[in-house]
Design goal:
By secondary structure, the protein is of the alpha/beta class. It is 53% helix and 13% strand. The strands form two sheets. A six-stranded parallel β-sheet has the order 3-2-1-4-5-6, with helices on both faces. Helix 8 crosses helix 11.
Amino acid sequence: MDIGFIGLGNMGAHMARRLIEAGHRVVVYDTRQEAIGNLAARGAIAARSPKEVADAVETVMASLPTPDIVLKVATGADGVIEGKRVRRFVDLSTTGAVMAQRIFKALAARGIVQIDAPVSGGVRGAEKGTVAVMASGPRADVEAVEPALKTIGKFFYIGERPGAGQTMKLCNNVLSAAAMAATSESMVMGVKAGLDPRIMLDVINASSGRSTATEQKFPEVVVPRKFNQGFTAGLMLKDVNLFISEAKALGIPIQVIEAVAAILKLTCDELGPDKDITQIVQPIEQRAGVEVRAPKT
Ligand code: NAD
């Protein structure tokens, strides 16, 4: 089918490439020319604005960094809303349920259906097509894009209510963030007490403390000091803050997640929001005076 794709970053570039490789005709746009060029070299058609994408195809997907940017791209001047052909806007970004509902209403007034379909599974998952895709929106419209979403990852239909997929995504991401934050404190403590981090991870991964942080992020990214997970601390802080505001609106106590937000904010303040999520360990290491790395042999 013809698919538009806006936002060709860490996640979007892989997802758009998978759609091209599956035989779809993909029209792409990003504010970075370099990102457009990379996809055009693989067979994508370049557009000059979100409107131009939405002039060319019925289904427009987006993978953009923040809720405000998604709002602007979807409903602003020269945005998807002004496109002549578009009928569906599939948002793969993490925006939170409140923004998803706002965009749904604005687009519905112009006869465009918004489907929220945030993803989880990281850059490696986007590359391999193994991310979880959490779609919500009118069933018939979701069914129309389901085959394309299955090219991107493992498809889940969350429900009719706009924003339900976003709620699902936030519930997942705070667990990922909490595991990364708690594992950082645990690993720094063990290393300062004299344990070998590689042995710690082997034991934890055979024990009850394991998580995506101990199974993948620490052994592959932190201990080798690569810090290239591909998801920024700033974007994770955005997700955790979205969860907090939506949880507060529902009257849920969230002391643990507020502590996770505080350490993410510390990381963003001290190192910068563009630093990798795995660098959340560094402010803890600095205060402890040790690093979680393999000991010299
Ligand atoms: P990214 O910053 O790497 O990519 C965003 C892309 O959007 C960039 O190429 C940027 O140039 C482009 N962009 C920014 N403003 C634009 C605009 N106005 N018009 C067109 N393009 C614009 O971010 P990412 O890591 O790929 O994440 C994208 C979304 O997916 C975010 O909402 C994030 O929370 C979510 N997400 C990321 C990961 C991950 O591991 N990186 C995992 C799951 C979900």
